[in-house]
Write a structure and sequence with these properties.
Blueprint: H1 2-7, H2 10-29, H3 31-48, H4 50-69, H5 88-99, H6 103-116, H7 119-124, H8 127-130, H9 133-138, H10 141-160, H11 168-171, H12 173-176, H13 183-219, H14 225-244, H15 247-272, H16 276-292, H17 294-298, H18 309-324, H19 328-335, H20 341-373, H21 378-385, H22 388-397, H23 402-431, H24 444-463, H25 468-502
Length: 503
């Protein structure tokens, strides 16, 4: 352990810990005041500077297509003739579950009715035509473009250049040069760690209340939902900590189990929910409408703020995915050894987008079908109560064998959280080291520390009972500086890869 202490970057390890503890205390002591401050800061970044996020989103997506189809796509992430370390299914499962936490299930069930009550949908047309389009747009091409371009850059850095500093700043070395080891590099790494903590806080805080609501529904009791949510966060922390301490084997096993549970849920709803025809037809139309209007949706800014829809949703989502880019692409790049850049990007689009779209089409369109046929009026309930979590349990209650489905959703959400956060904790642990070789792993005590650190801020946000808007604010604020770093990483990758191909 003495030798281990010399390797540890104490600034990157301790400063985020201290700041998170301070923030937790602030949220506990002054929840309403802290939420108010968050709202004001979010207004500046999300409203005043909103176009910045949209430009980065569209630019990264277009760049991903260019890189995959260009000479850069032929670069093998490893030795020239090296074969992929994992099968396509195992690789795709780990990639999908590390990139998407349990919030995909929350939003798959709820997003259409959140949009349907927004005035912007009335501006666009009918609920039938547009409520199922935006979920697909917000969770497909641009978000996965963020992940996959950076995954290619990190994979190149780790497996081709064999650099032993697994940090954001190291990916900028081709541009920053010697400044990577100075103040500029330290600032980049600190920003990355803060963004990582913000992303995990938002994710945990958004979806775990649904798990608490499911438990109350299953047992027919009214336990304090804040207390139940915090207990769920702690239990999930125990599971992903156990998985992480068993290395990549534990992560792979958990990811496969999560994928089977996830697709089992989708198949059950599709085949036994009674809305199979509607789900398929509406989903097919939604994909076509999204593709047809992609650039219009990607560049919408609502300059007159008639509904502020882009500010409330699209800009939030791009920021949300940007803060997750601190961990997920590192992990994807790590497990992509032996694949070409083209295989990593295009294969990631196929598995990642395919699985994501299926979730929104099946789980979202099931309840939308009930709404449009008049079999249920979920919109009236949501407008009256504003309780998305309670409405989701009502939606699940309309399925055959509803208690079984509730248990399946609960277990799947826990599996999603566990597989996402063990990969995030592993990446964060690597940040705690000055240098870490390709075959080295962080010390288990460092991994354990990060497993605990990742749940502190979410618990504070849940305790403070932050609104959905304030939870979104955390990601929007953290993503602003990360956008500049992402551009720097991509430019550095293109420069370094060009030199590599010349040689």
């Amino acid at each position: 352990m003495k030798n281990e202490k010399k390797k540890i970057d104490w600034l990157i390890t301790l400063l985020p810990l201290i700041i998170v503890v301070v923030l937790c205390i602030v949220f506990f002591v002054a929840p309403s005041q802290s939420n108010e401050v968050l709202s004001k800061i979010r207004f500046f970044f999300g409203d005043t500077m909103g176009t910045y996020y949209l430009i980065i989103g569209l630019g990264i997506f277009l760049l991903s297509i260019y890189i995959a189809c260009s000479k850069y796509g032929t670069i093998v992430l490893g030795e020239k003739d090296e074969k992929p370390k994992y099968s396509f299914f195992a690789w795709g499962s780990m990639m999908f579950t590390c990139g998407l936490a349990a919030d995909i299930l929350f939003y798959s069930f709820s997003e259409w009715f959140m949009y349907a009550t927004d005035p912007h949908i009335a501006e666009m047309g009918s609920i039938q035509d547009w409520a199922s389009v935006y979920p697909i747009f917000h969770w497909s091409l641009i978000p996965w473009g963020f992940y996959l371009v950076l995954a290619a850059a990190f994979g190149f850095m780790l497996h081709v250049r064999k650099r032993d500093r697994q940090k954001y700043s190291e990916a900028c070395r081709p541009i920053l040069g010697k400044h990577t080891d100075g103040i500029a590099g330290r600032i980049i790494d600190l920003l990355a760690v803060f963004a990582l903590l913000a992303g995990t806080a938002t994710t945990f805080s958004v979806a775990t209340p649904l798990m608490a609501k499911i438990i109350n529904t299953l047992f027919g009791v009214q336990l304090n939902e804040t207390a139940v949510t915090i207990v769920i966060i702690v239990i999930t922390c125990v599971i992903y900590t156990y998985s992480l301490l068993h290395g990549f084997k534990g992560i792979s096993v958990l990811a496969n189990a999560c994928i089977y549970l996830f697709f089992g849920l989708l198949i059950y709803v599709l085949l036994f929910g009674g809305e199979t025809k509607y789900i398929i037809e509406t989903g097919f139309s939604a994909i076509g409408r999204m593709v047809q209007n992609f650039f219009t949706l990607a560049t919408a800014t609502d300059p007159q703020r008639t509904t502020s829809f882009p500010q409330n949703w699209t800009i939030y989502y791009w920021a949300y995915w940007m803060v997750w880019c601190v961990a997920a692409p590192f992990f994807i790049g790590n497990i992509s050894r032996g694949r070409t850049v083209r295989q990593t990007i295009l294969g990631g689009y196929v598995f990642g987008i395919g699985s994501t779209i299926m979730s929104f089409i099946i789980l979202g369109n099931y309840s939308l079908g009930k709404q449009m046929s008049g079999a249920a009026d979920f919109l009236a309930t949501y407008i009256e109560t504003g309780d998305a979590y309670g409405l989701i349990t009502d939606i699940i209650g309309t399925l055959p064998c509803a208690p079984f489905v509730l248990v399946l959703v609960l277990v799947t959400m826990i599996a999603f959280y566990a597989t996402s956060f063990d990969s995030i904790a592993l990446t964060a642990s690597c940040y705690s080291y000055h240098r870490l070789g390709a075959n080295e792993q962080p010390h288990k005590l460092i991994q354990f520390m990060w497993c605990i650190l990742l749940v502190l801020l979410p618990i504070a946000l849940v305790f403070a009972q932050s609104s959905m808007s304030n939870l979104q604010s955390v990601s929007i604020i953290a993503a602003f500086p990360i956008g500049f770093v992402m551009i720097l990483i991509v430019v550095s990758f293109l420069k370094d890869a060009k030199q590599y191909l010349k040689k």
